[in-house]
Structures
1.
Amino acid sequence: MAGRAIRGGGWAAQAWGMAVIEVRDLSKRYGGVQVVDGVSFSVEEGEIFGILGPNGAGKTTTVECAEGLRRPDSGSIRVLGLDPVKDRRELSHRVGVQLQESLLPENIKVWEALDLYASFYRAPKDWRALLDEWGLADKRDARFSKLSGGQKQRLFIALALVGDPKVAFLDELTTGLDPAARRVTWELIKRVRAAGVTVVLVSHFMDEVEELCDRVAVFDRGRIVAMDTPSGLISAVDADQQLRFRPLAPVDDATLARVPGVVSVTRTGDRVIVTGRGDFAGAVTSALARDHIPVAELRVERHTLDDAFVALTGRNLDTQES
């Protein structure tokens, strides 16, 4: 599901199906600080849409406006055709929310939390089935304070889904989890989408967004600086990449240098390092095969979303201010 890259915050239609979320020219200030500045995007039915950026970039404020938790200063928002401010009560029955700062009373039991949340909705799911679905059946009577980080996240997902929503907002779902628990949570998010729920995933983890999202809006200083598929953002990075290998037969550097897209050919010990752009790596490997030159330890150092973020903003995500 490819999307066209969008630079800046201006409104642009997407080549997708029906939009379930439409945000146009959204702005929000706190005091004299412009936190969200003319943000526009749409989220299509059935996708996992990522909102990526550092702390303080306006991600959570944007999502809270879409959820009806904050009133925007200007702009328009429609979620499932509803205005989050005017139609907040109705919208609350159709969306599920996992907030960035989610806490429950320490002594509340898992089943009690699910039963309580189910009472908020007019047509909730059977919370007993959710216990089984999210691997919490054996923790039914466990108190919240006794759950592990991963178990708490499973519970928060179940709470976000107990109202049988069409859209789920998941904000910084894996913050504080160890790598193994994060990857388990990723699989849970995929299951949420597989169940027919459109997911808006707010994150500052590049690997998470790259793994899960169909499209992603990159936020920086209250604006959307780019929007595309993760692979589209990465491929748009106009920078050199490297192909490294150890040749098992003599190879002529000058021949490799003439391959389209190759910028330079250097050597480090018995390793050849070919620097290039575009699809140069495929062209180089084809040239090696054509000349019957076997290689070992072939490795392509590809761009990542980190590289894309640096190219778009001129800064590293992990060094941003809070």
2.
Amino acid sequence: MRSYDKNEAQSTEEFGKSLDEIAREGALKMLKDALEAEVEDFLGRGRYQRSEDYSGYRNGFGKKRKVVVGSGTLELQAPRVRDALVPFESDVLHKYQRQSDEVKSLIPELYLHGLATGDFELAMRGLLGDGASLSAASVSRLKEKWEDEYNSWRRRDLSSHKYVYMWCDGIYPKAGLSDDKLALLVVLGVNKNGIKEPLAIFEGYRESKESWGNVLHDLKERGLTDPKLFIGDGALGLWAAIGEVYPHADWQRCWCHKMRNVISYFPKRLKAEAAFYLKEMYNAATEEKAISLINDFAGRYAREYPLAVECLKKDQDVLLTFFCYPREHWASIKTTNPIESVFSSVRLRTNAARRIKSPRSALFLIFQIILRAQKRWRSINAPEMIQKVIDGVKFKDGVEVKEVKQRKTKREMVAA
């Protein structure tokens, strides 16, 4: 019989481990290596090496602690440094940190999916190992922290930033026992670098002018001046508030909402046909072509479907505002899709979490989900064009209008 050597026995033992065990061991090794590399970089020398420039020295390890990461619960000791001119602080593992950011983001997700506060301890232990338990009291404290974070965020100063495009929408979390139509009013902006940022998440009542006015006045008081373009659906309260608070800003009516509204006036047999003509307008290369298509649509359907034509024509001007902005940005500013896509998953989760007792609780949870989702948002196309919009450069049909310098006459040159 063939005998196994020590290495083969060890290999067989490794294969006997579960996938989770292998993942945890690999994560632990990588984390230890990263911490050691940080210390070497901080001291400017490796372990057992000497250096002429004294910058402190290693002093063993800190107390054992359990850290919960996506692959499970890891037990480790962080390296310590003594007598350094500047205290050593790890960027990989922060002081007193017990959970990774990914695990923290899991908590509001589970909560919105319907996990009760008292169930977290068992659920976390089952997902991430025995060291990952989270008591009901810990979850309650975490929710209080979310409230504090939200309050700090909504009061932050905006005066040092420029925002050009502003998407506005209201979402209705199915939370609380009241029949009142409470909404969360949301404003998403694009900064001068083309990055999307949530700027406001407020409680409001039925998207009224007063509610939207409170949101916009708050933004203005915190330093948000002169946004160029607001994009929104047909909520009259929103447009009335914009006209009052930011009277110089342009308006862009969401094409997706408008197309759905227009198509709703047609019988089923004609909906696809109407949608085809509306999409032609939406994709028109010039404002002149879009107006021509709108007029053709009106001539075709005004007699039998006057309400559909009226629905389209009444917002014609604000549907075509995008032609005055860079063509590269049209895909983003024609509709409220940037904000719709952000909140589609939020809507699903809050609709499922019927046990949330108050919209206030839903507000803090949604805020946490948005903050985590923000890291995955892509910037707007051609972000370099944003500065031109800020500088007031004129665009016609999406193309920059170049100023033509007139040549001087001979008489003007002689006079000069």
3.
Amino acid sequence: MNRRKSIIFIFYFLLLAFGLFAQDTWVKNYQPFGEDVSYFVEDIRVCPDEGYAVIGSIWSDELTSNQGFMMKTDSDGNLEWANIDMVDFITGPEPSGFIVLADGSFITIGNNFWGGGRYLLKRYPDGVIEWVVQLDNDYGTEAIELTIDGNMVTTGGSMDGSISLQKFDLNGNLIWRETYLPDGFGYGGGYSVIQTSDEGYALTGYVFGINHRDILVIKTNATGDSLWTWTYNGTANSIDLAKCIIENSESELLIGGHINNTVEREYFGYLIKMNAIGDTIWTEKVNNVGGITSMFHTQDSNYLIQGGDNITKFNNDREIIWQVPRLVGLNAQGDRTILERTDQYIIYLGKDYWSDYITIVKCDAMGQVSAIDENVVLPDVIDFRCYPNPFNPEITISYTISKPTDIEINVFNVKGQLADVILQEQKIGGFHSITWNASSYTSGVYFIQLIQNDKLKCIKKVSLIK
């Protein structure tokens, strides 16, 4: 009898513990600007009050172009505020990164969605804009990080084709700027930057050569002078890219991205580990992961990956500790979309295509969530890609849908004008692809838009280079 009571007590205790734990993990969906708006999300960061801030952009029939925004939640994921990026001197501001300051204020960096125009924008902790600074239009901005000396550093591309590294003070004043382009390459861009433990900087992105795009890593000293440059071509004629870079406690660099073999039609996540002087320690294809967009070095000296359809944790020996499906349809686009809290809970950001929600997930240290918001639904558009990018003169547009639906694919130029209607028809569920031949169009940036059942689902920015 006593043994039975003990078993019942233990079972009750486990249920109680599970119930309490379930309250600590959650999936929250947000439509801060209404249901008739398309949402695109970039990055998420933890705030000093343990809440979360998210940047992205919105699109609706009422807007003439994309419009940037920031939203803020409390530590339980409850929405506190959401405000538009009000930038008078450009149309269509689109944030590409942000930092959180010690006092809870924010600085966002961004670009004009349709090309041209760069800005820095500072918000008070309550979301009210404090100031906006216009930046040099010749230097793009894709990522931003705080520096040890209380300033900020950014990376991106340049109008002359080089990769940029810029340091600003917290009032938006330029301290210094450096540009880089390895020999033998025509142009490139930076997608992620960090300050390293030696107070220098490391950035990653891509460089474009003849018939191939390569992964790029650059290491500099504290004033931006290049110490070494490393490039990697996955396979012959492949279109490769790195989206994120982090440093571990041994001063080693971890770089995440993808290899896109356009000949074999093979696309997979790729990891690179390097030491502080640029020697490659290992490279690794990551199974069941598409393009890696974000990584985080955990408190137990392992690594989290956001990419493809999964969240993955692996160790220093490249062994996968666990891999679980993401609880949201699509990755966010930035290099800071997954993180580990000090209590080892994991936060990641994504977007539900079909229902057009912004989604934040808080899961346990094993990637599990005990209770899911009933509003979460599986997307009907599972995948949407445009490759190669840049292209000349043909680009393949592929997508996967879960059921029969009306699909429309359009191309717009940088002025927002309709350039071509590629497809307008009903498609059965499954994988589909179509090729757009742009031989009659001029070189430049274009935007390929996928519409499902008269609702905008995705926009891809592509470059035609002749």
4.
Amino acid sequence: MDAATDSIDSASVGDPALFQPLATLEHELASAVPAPRDRGRVVLLVSRGDGGRRMTPSRAVLTPQSGMPGDAWGRRQRRPSREAQLTVMQANVAALIANGQPLALFGDNLILDLDLSDGNLPPGSRVRTGRAVLEVTTLPHNGCHKFRARFGAAALRFTLKAELRHLNLRGVYMQVVEDGEVGVGDPVEIISRAGGLAEARHYVRQ
């Protein structure tokens, strides 16, 4: 774990001086180099320990039973939904919103250099991440009050803007369908795209 992330937990908030205005976020997104569509790489792994304390292992074994080892998902008292097993965010979008803050502040389990839009990776699509196979679920990944406290109200509006929702700027949920080890820097490759499922994700307006 690096020193920049070892103090981040569920109660952590962001630095308002680094919050980006909506116009800047939209402009930078429009001018950004597109993320890879077919084959990318793993940028960051995050497991949320007790109290949401961030752990950033260099490698982990993902399984259908536990998801990310040690993560909050697997510690829930009631049977956790596999639809929400792993939270995943696109690396260039995360870097844009974070604006210099640690990417572990998001709390997403995987930060991937890969296009996560509905057009490229609709629900039901599968990706090989390291040696694990993951499937995109239909559950929408929406921002919340914690996201607003960490990155600002404009960032939350940015991720929820109707005309941008198909880009999944806040990320997506995935579930593990084949266990395997994954590490930072490992390749991520789309192995199947679900057809006709781009409309299956039901967004919640906030």
